[in-house]
Design a protein that fits this description.
Blueprint lengths: L2 E7 L4 H11 L7 E5 L5 H14 L7 E6 L8 H9 L4 H13 L7 E5 L17 H18 L3 E8 L9 H4 L8 E7 L2 H4 L3 H10 L4 H11 L3 E8 L16 H13 L6 E6 L19 H17 L27 H16 L7 H18 L14 H12 L7 H17 L18 H47 L1
Parallel strand pairs: 1-2, 1-8, 2-3, 3-4, 4-5, 5-6, 6-7, 7-8
Helix pairs in contact: 2-4, 3-5, 4-5, 8-10, 10-11, 12-13, 12-14, 12-15, 13-14, 14-15
């Protein structure tokens, strides 16, 4: 029988997981949580997953699924793939896995998605047809290193359905059953892409070019062991609209569940993890325990009961895989120019801040992130068409700083999140690129005030003229004094 697993993307908030379980009245706690590491720098890549796993320790014995990037976001995807496939990052990747494992005691499986969401154009490891052969090598290498650290790692080849324009199939990247256990497809209900009709939404998620049905068909053809929805976002309202249950997504939840459970005889594992959402306009699955999405809550609870009823096994360790070490690693690539590094850092940070704050901060953050996206496209770190966009790093920084404005009306938390980056960006900009603050114009007095001042000036001028005449007369008298004194002296001596 199939093993069924249910979980939630942790989003660094233990309370959200517990509130979700309580709100839905789940008959059993969730089986696992999902977390990801940072990518601002090599130290961030290597240490952050272990730190997060340590912070999430109170959620044990819930299991762990991790989506880990293997190199910093600032690196060019094409160059990083080549270097990683050649073994230059082996030591860093091994240390990453060791740091994670140290914070996750026990012998239960750790499900791992390297190169996660590789089908979208928003990751700097997005896979194009030209990169697919290298991506296959990199996935194989990640699996080899992970299982040399511990046989607990079970590897997931994890793409995404929404906004997926890549002409790459799972089969193009699949490294072989000995290196890849499961396939995963992230699904998000986003009405801006799929419309507002629940039947149409379900059809898009299942039958699009990169939909769930396509992944399942490839998984069966290639003989992988399990299928996942590693991130399942259910947003029952349109983007930037009131967070009310504007749409009944019960047919979507039931339809996806029907498809998953229909495959119970073809795989040894079926799992999904709900995206817990952000604040602002990205409210998913009502994780706060407020009960404002009651129909969605009931649909998820009903699917949870079906999944538990279908579950017939306990977690098992993945099979041991022979490990073949590659050539000794060399040092990571030298850092790029400061402007481009700041562009990459800002783009990643601002992407994570989108939809977390109210207006006008949210629109400004999105505009800043967009200005910083196109230099990364031009250098191969992101996918997209940069035609008509500013791709020079310094000019893009200037545009982002200008989009930030004065930060007036921003919440204090949003200001604190961007202030440091803005200060460094402004310091890096040459004088001609730096946005110049507007110089306040002198206040112009009203006409009545002008007339009054002119009269006062005239009176003062008259007083000055009179005082000057008096002074001249006095000086003339003083000039005659010495002559009168001399005449008196001479007369006295005669």
């Amino acid at each position: 029988m199939v093993q069924t697993l249910r979980g939630m993307y942790w989003n660094n908030q233990t309370s959200r997981v517990e509130a979700f379980e309580k709100q839905l009245g789940l008959s059993r706690p969730l089986d696992l949580i999902r977390l990801s590491n940072g990518g601002a720098s090599w130290p961030d890549v290597i240490t952050s997953a272990g730190w997060l796993a340590g912070v999430a320790a109170p959620l044990r014995p819930r299991g762990l699924q991790v989506c880990l990037q293997l190199w910093p976001s600032s690196l060019s995807s094409a160059d990083a793939y080549k270097r990683c496939a050649a073994g230059e990052y082996d030591d860093n990747i091994r240390t990453l896995y060791q740091n994670l494992l140290a914070k996750v005691p026990g012998d239960d499986p750790i499900w791992h998605s390297p190169l996660y969401e590789w089908g979208g154009n928003w990751m700097n490891w997005s896979i194009t047809p030209a990169l697919a052969p290298l991506a296959k090598q990199v996935f194989r290498k990640a699996a080899t290193i992970a299982r040399s650290v511990s046989p607990r790692f079970r590897m997931i080849l994890n793409s995404a359905e929404w906004n997926n324009s890549a002409a790459v199939k799972f089969a193009d990247v699949f490294p072989g059953r000995e290196f890849c256990d499961d396939f995963g497809m992230n699904l998000y209900v986003k009405q801006e892409y799929q419309g507002t009709n629940p039947a149409g939404i379900l059809k898009a998620l299942l039958e699009s070019k990169h939909g769930l049905n396509t992944m399942i068909a490839e998984a069966k053809a290639l003989g992988v062991r399990g299928i996942w929805i590693p991130e399942w976002g259910l947003r029952p309202h349109e983007k930037d609209k009131a967070q009310t249950e504007a749409m009944d997504l019960t047919p979507v939840v039931q339809g996806i569940g029907d498809v998953l459970l229909r495959e119970a005889g073809n795989f040894d594992l079926i799992g999904y993890l709900f995206w817990s959402g952000r604040s602002g306009a990205e409210a998913y699955v009502d994780p706060t325990g407020t009960g404002k999405f009651p129909k969605l809550d009931r649909a998820i609870k009903a699917l949870d009961d079906r999944m538990l009823a279908a579950n017939g096994t306990t977690p098992t360790k993945p099979p041991e895989t022979p490990v073949t070490e590659t050539a000794p690693p060399s040092a990571p690539a030298a850092p790029q120019d400061p402007a481009m590094a700041l562009v990459a850092e800002g783009n990643e940070a601002l992407f994570s801040l989108r939809d977390r704050f109210p207006e006008p901060a949210n629109s400004a953050i999105r505009a800043m992130e967009d200005r910083l996206f196109w230099p990364l496209v031009a250098t191969g770190k992101k996918n997209g068409d940069p035609a008509g966009r500013e791709t020079e790093a310094t000019k893009a920084l200037a545009l982002a700083v200008h989009a930030a404005g004065t930060l007036d009306g921003w919440p204090a938390e949003a200001v604190a999140a961007v202030r440091g980056w803005l200060d460094r960006a402004k310091a890096l900009l040459p004088a001609e690129e730096a946005p110049q603050p507007e110089q306040p114009q002198p206040e112009q007095p009203v006409p009545d005030v002008v007339a009054t001042l002119q009269a006062q000036i005239a009176r003062l001028q008259e007083q000055l003229t009179a005082e000057q005449a008096a002074r001249a007369a006095a000086e003339a008298k003083l000039a005659k004094v010495p002559g009168a004194i001399q005449a008196a002296v001479q007369a006295a001596l005669a």
